[in-house]
Amino acid sequence: MSDRPRHIVRLSDLPSRKRTPIQIEPDAAGRAELAEALDVLTIRKLRLEGELIPMGKTDWRLEATLGATVQQACVVTLEPVTTRIDDDVLRTYSANFEDPDAAEVEMPEDDTTEPLPETLDLVAVMAEALALSLPPFPRKNGAEIGSVQYTEPGKAAMTDEDARPFAGLAALRDSLENKDDDVS
């Protein structure tokens, strides 16, 4: 028996002609650790379930479903916002993967292909998939951002209208028109 954790899979040890089912469901301590790492309030439920599928002699494909219930702080009120996540997780691990060397590289159409690892950490795959699925700006229903204006005492605060690119030109045009009216 191996002392490797169950979520660490050595792909070369798996049967190369049949699918291998996977299921990862962290306990409360594991969810709390991941919640802290992802800077979310809580992760109430978390599960990655699917299969590792052999592709040819060396390559593998992970087809799984990520299910999670996560609480994040509202970006407006900081109150908890609960989000349910149900996403497909697809990864292809290729022995012939070539990592581009150039400073600027075009994103490939298939961004699910990665180099074939010696061992696959399913918890790391689950954490990455969850991080990519989280709403970037969670907002509680009905939460609105109010208008706050700051300026020095005795001066008028700049508004959004003043910040528009052509607001200054419109004011100049209006003042020139008024000047022309005064001259006639």
Describe what this molecule looks like in 3D.
This protein is of the alpha+beta class and 184 residues long. It has a domain at 8-133. It contains 4 helices and 7 strands, in the order E-E-H-E-E-E-E-E-H-H-H. It has helices spanning 28-38, 122-133, 160-163, 167-183, and strands at residues 8-10, 20-24, 42-55, 59-73, 80-94, 113-115, 119-121. The strands form 2 sheets. It has a 5-stranded mixed sheet with strand order 2-3-4-5-6, with helices on one face. A hairpin with a 3-residue loop joins strand 3 and strand 4. The longest helix has 17 residues, at 167-183. The protein is elongated, with a radius of gyration of 27 Å. The mean pLDDT is 83.
Strand content: 25-35%
> Main sheet, how many strands, which sense, barrel?
5 strands, mixed
**Cα-atom radius of gyration:** 27 Å
Question: So how many helices?
Answer: 4
Mean pLDDT: 83
List segments where confidence is low: pLDDT < 50 over at least 5 consecutive residues. Answer: none
Number of strands: 7
**Gap between N and C termini, in Å?**
99 Å
Query: What string gives the helices and strands in order?
Result: EEHEEEEEHHH
Structural class call reads alpha+beta
Which percent range fits the helix content?
Answer: 10-25%
Give the CA-based shape. Answer: elongated
- What's the arrangement of strands in the largest beta sheet? 2-3-4-5-6
Topology:
Elements: E1 8-10, E2 20-24, H1 28-38, E3 42-55, E4 59-73, E5 80-94, E6 113-115, E7 119-121, H2 122-133, H3 160-163, H4 167-183
Any key phrases for this structure?
alpha+beta; 7 strands; 32% strand; elongated
